[in-house]
Amino acid sequence: MDADSLPDFQLLPYSSEHPGSNAGGELESLSQASDNPITLNVSSSWTYCGPLLTLEENSLPSSFHTWAQATVNGSLLTPLFSFLAYVHEFLAANNLAHYWLTVRATQGSTEFDVPRWHTDDLFFSPLSTTKQKTVSKSSLSKKLRFTTRNYYETQHTRYPDYDALNPFIHPQPTQAQAQPPPKNAQIITPNPNPPDWKLCTTLLGPGTLFINSKRNLARTIQRTTKAAVQNENPGHICLSIRCVGCASAAETVRTRLATDLKPHQTVQSRQGECVFFRVGEDEGAVHSEPRSHGDRVFVNVVPGDERDLRAWCVGLPLQIEGEEVYRNVGEV
Q: Among 76, 99, 140, 267, which residue's CB has the most CB atoms within a 10 Å radius?
């Protein structure tokens, strides 16, 4: 399927028939499978950055098994492999063979009882448009002020069990602990046409919510609301929340959008559906995390080629040609 031919978002059903599925090729509902129910011990994420994984249990990075053992009661392999088999076919059809993959497990909370309508930021900016769209590498590095060494040292201080050689296993930091880089700082890539879209699915719990009516209007409302709040709070619309003023401004945007977008129709993805959606304020899909008072497992795929990921995934082992390149990616 050609990604260029798709709209800002589309729900794409995928088959559960994969060698990792059960004998009948049926994908069990994780929340209802009586012989292997899925529950979570803790909210945490596993992230991989590099070539498409081999979908065999013994071929997965050891960090996945360590993370799953600490986080999940039961096995995610059957539904995860079914989704990734579809993802691999989709990426191959679009001449892509690398991705930034995140499996995010979260326990129930009231955090998203009020929706957080937003569009995801663009990840990559072609080198030819750098001056118009992104900061330079030097200014970006100054803004991050985060070296590989102090990233690992900081993580080890926060989490005594943290392994710098296997930096996938750690509980999600609290807001006070988190020190992410600017969330919407685009990465300069020599790729002249980097992907401006993502793929995702939900393996357990409620799916992501998307605005499904008057989508252009929804994007306009989002931009004008953010601009209005920025004018009301000069100096407090940061790329990431770093002070009480920024947190207050972000909450104001969230509250206003929850009210202004309430008349719009929404659609919610279901288990067994891959969501294709575009990113960026101009063409991105307006979406929100769902209300979730129980366990949830969400999978996010950011596609790219080797050039894109070499720039983006510093801070994660980027498994290309036996090399490891690092970048602090903050909260995924």
A: 99
